Amino acid sequence: MKRSGWSLHLLMTGLVLILLAAAAVPSAPALALTEFPQGNAWGRATPAVIWCNDPTSTVKFEVHITGRTDVARVWLTDLGTDEEEERAELYDDGTHGDQTAGDNLFTLADVVVPCSPDFILSRGGTNQLHFMLRVELDDGSYTGNNYGTAAVGMVHTDYRHVFSVQTLGEGLSATAYAFFIEDRLYEVMDGYPVADIRCGKGNYEAFRKLYSVLPDVFDFAMVVPGTQLLRRGDYGENVPYDVLVTNEVEHIGMSIMDNSALFGSAGRLKSAIYHSFGSLAIFDHEVGHTWGMAIGQSLGLINEDWDVDQGHWDEMTDIQGQMGAYFFDNSGAIGHFADNGDGTWRLIANLEVEPYSPLELYVMGLIPPEEVPDIHILSKPDTTDLARISATARTVTMDQIIA
Asked: Are strands 41-46 and 71-78 parallel, antiparallel or unpaired?
């Protein structure tokens, strides 16, 4: 079994993994409202990815309790099925795969994670699930959190042996769609699943391994861990980010730069992307950061809470697209403003799939400036009706942006 691994995706390839609840254990108590601190527990599923409809493909779950000694029992649950009979109990008594009793490492081995093959195929053959923590303390109280303590992926067996793999030596291999690194010596990351995660920000080894065996022909390289990775200290999962490598385009709010040598590229690589384990849901967004979304800063188009070179459009604009910060309404609605064309706006929910906006396509060099409509910066929006929002608005034209 591989100890740990990475896949490094080139251009716009996708690799998604899957889901579903662990073995049922009755008698787990109802969860109280108190929250168990995320920094006191981290989990692991081994292997991280299994075959959906293969009963011999089983998982061992582990939950490590750190910084406290008052935890009596531990369960994992799927957030969508948080009922007593749906929780799986882990053990710290030397049974169920647990190696050492009383060491605050709770274990449940040989779990057959149930799934529907038809459902998996309807999702493209892959999906994923994050399991949530539930805890009983020594004083008899119950707590937990919904941070996703352990993640499991599933792949339908129809995909077994489908892709031709070329072995490149020294733990490196590739298909036509991805480059794989078996990181037995911890050359890429210093630990799994808890690590200092700065891939492309002072840690360039994954990219250098790529260029050690493949030519310098890629515009984007995306590193995806073969298991859920957690930050040291708070055990939060590292979220996707983009690292700018080169830019040779003027007048888009970014400086000319070339850091490609750090990555092993001779100048071709534009962006290095880290994407967390599982569905590559926001890859399009991270690719968009290659062009910075820094144009129009002096006109108020950029959210001030972000580094300009890695900017997001201000949430009060109607730019929309992949790169905008979200507007949060008091009612709980989240999304982007869209111009109705009659002096009102609607809110596009954050769950809707949006294409790149015209301004984003312009900075990418894909459309001319005359195809970018006027942009409005809203203030005091009345969100009583999310389909017809009234607001005071300041207009920004493409001519102003270019000037």
From this structure: unpaired
